[in-house]
């Protein structure tokens, strides 16, 4: 469906549509009066901004692909929280390969270039990615709450299967919630001068002023405020449980319980860091979108307005990059696996060297001439490998 509207009536709605998590594809992101100019501002729009987007895509793909590869290929890393984190990484990858390139393209071309099918599919895919991220963080918080409240529970194979089912259900729910984006999105033909116009992908019908307001409020509630409120409740109870149990561990379980509790506290901190990054990175985008939706007749399509929008977008996109690197600094086990993935040749060399040393040690142990130092060295190596296999994050 195509409709013709005047630039003065639609420019503000274009700006509002361009910052929603579900549809960041309205054009043009560059003010028409700036598009044909030369100078520092035009240079920033045409060169610096696309380079920034390329950096986000490259760093995000490197971190998230490596994270998923580690959890898929390493059986020692397949635990309940790691399954959720892997699903979170896949959702970030989906955002990086759909939303970010499309948004970056807006600084090169003034037209919507993906047709009506793209106008319906791309916003739905993007909103699905946002849903997977926030709903997975909520599920992770619930999992950490159960782990801290019941520290004696032992992870079983059925728990891993059940977690996979939960992760799949999150994806299905996210897709279903994004279906309205595909149903109601439409291409609008916008005239901004007597002889010039552009096409834009709009996330909602343009025949009612209430649509942008309803859309922005629902997006904020479903994809930000409600999940973060639930997460806050979980972490409030986690904090209470940790404070209460700090000096109340049964003596017969003291050593094992303390070690297990420390591990689960560390995992809870990791999830909390993920949640904090999500809240920080997406808050400006949500606020800006709601402000525009309720004041779209007063929006100024100026360079300053474009810069504010750009900062909000880039910040939200950066959220898809930070989780693997946060995990790298917070998890010794993940850091070791991450380094080995980036330095695979060195890893293979170390494995061959270790294998040779263990074989040599075994031969020396069976020999009448083996000494105590060789025996202790072999035992230490074997015990070290066993201990490392027990750690998942």
UniProtKB/TrEMBL annotation:
Q: Where is the G-protein coupled receptors family 1 profile domain?
A: 63-327
Where are the annotated segments for Disordered? 1-34
Annotated transmembrane regions? 52-72, 84-109, 121-140, 160-179, 214-236, 267-291, 303-330
What membrane topology is given?
Multi-pass membrane protein
**Which subcellular locations apply to this protein?**
Cell membrane
- Which CDD domains does this entry report, sorted A to Z? 7tmA_NMBR
Bias class Polar residues marks the residues at 16-28
GO CC list? plasma membrane
Name the source's superkingdom.
Answer: Eukaryota
Q: Which GO terms describe its molecular function?
A: bombesin receptor activity
Name the keywords, alphabetized.
Cell membrane, Disulfide bond, G-protein coupled receptor, Glycoprotein, Lipoprotein, Membrane, Palmitate, Phosphoprotein, Receptor, Transducer, Transmembrane, Transmembrane helix
Q: Which Pfam families match?
A: 7tm_1
Q: Which InterPro entries match?
A: Bombsn_rcpt-like (IPR001556), GPCR_Rhodpsn (IPR000276), GPCR_Rhodpsn_7TM (IPR017452), NeuroB_rcpt (IPR001642)
Q: Which family does it belong to?
A: Belongs to the G-protein coupled receptor 1 family.
The protein's matches in PANTHER family, at most eight in alphabetical order, are given as:
LEUCOKININ RECEPTOR-RELATED (PTHR45695), NEUROMEDIN-B RECEPTOR (PTHR45695:SF8)
| Protein name from the UniProt record | Neuromedin-B receptor
Task: Record the organism.
Answer: Geotrypetes seraphini
Taxonomic lineage of this organism?
Answer: Eukaryota, Metazoa, Chordata, Craniata, Vertebrata
């Amino acid at each position: 469906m195509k409709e013709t509207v005047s630039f003065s009536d639609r420019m503000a709605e274009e700006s509002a549509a361009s910052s929603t998590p579900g549809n960041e594809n309205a054009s043009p992101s560059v003010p028409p009066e700036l598009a044909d100019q030369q100078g520092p501002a035009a240079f920033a729009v045409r060169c610096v901004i696309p380079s920034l987007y390329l950096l986000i895509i490259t760093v995000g793909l490197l971190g998230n692909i490596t994270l998923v590869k580690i959890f898929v290929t390493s059986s020692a890393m397949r635990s309940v929280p790691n399954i959720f984190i892997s699903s979170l990484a896949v959702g970030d990858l989906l955002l990086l390969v759909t939303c970010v390139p499309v948004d970056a393209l807006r600084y090169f071309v003034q037209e919507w270039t993906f047709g009506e099918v793209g106008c319906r599919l791309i916003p739905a895919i993007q909103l699905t990615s946002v849903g997977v991220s926030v709903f997975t963080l909520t599920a992770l918080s619930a999992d950490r709450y159960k782990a801290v409240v019941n520290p004696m529970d032992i992870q079983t194979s059925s728990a891993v299967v059940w977690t996979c089912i939960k992760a799949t259900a999150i994806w299905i729910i996210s897709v279903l919630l994004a279906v309205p984006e595909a149903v109601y999105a439409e291409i609008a033909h916008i005239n901004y001068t007597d002889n010039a116009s552009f096409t834009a992908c709009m996330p909602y019908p343009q025949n009612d002023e209430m649509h942008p307001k309803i859309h922005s409020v629902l997006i904020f509630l479903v994809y930000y405020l409600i999940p973060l409120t639930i997460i806050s409740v979980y972490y409030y109870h986690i904090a209470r449980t940790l404070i209460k149990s700090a000096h109340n561990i049964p003596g017969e379980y003291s050593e094992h319980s303390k070690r297990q509790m420390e591990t689960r506290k560390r995992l809870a901190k990791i999830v909390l860091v993920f949640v904090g990054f999500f809240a920080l990175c997406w808050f400006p985008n949500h606020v800006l979108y709601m402000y525009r939706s309720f004041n779209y007749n007063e929006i100024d399509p100026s360079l300053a307005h474009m810069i504010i929008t750009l900062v909000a977008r880039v910040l939200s996109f950066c959220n898809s990059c930070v989780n693997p690197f946060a995990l790298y600094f917070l998890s010794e086990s993940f850091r070791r696996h991450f380094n080995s993935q980036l330095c695979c040749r060195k890893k293979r060399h170390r494995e061959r060297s270790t294998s040779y040393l263990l074989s040599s040690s075994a031969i020396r142990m069976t020999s009448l001439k083996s000494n105590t130092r060789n025996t202790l060295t072999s035992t230490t190596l074997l015990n070290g490998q066993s201990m490392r296999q027990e750690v998942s994050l």
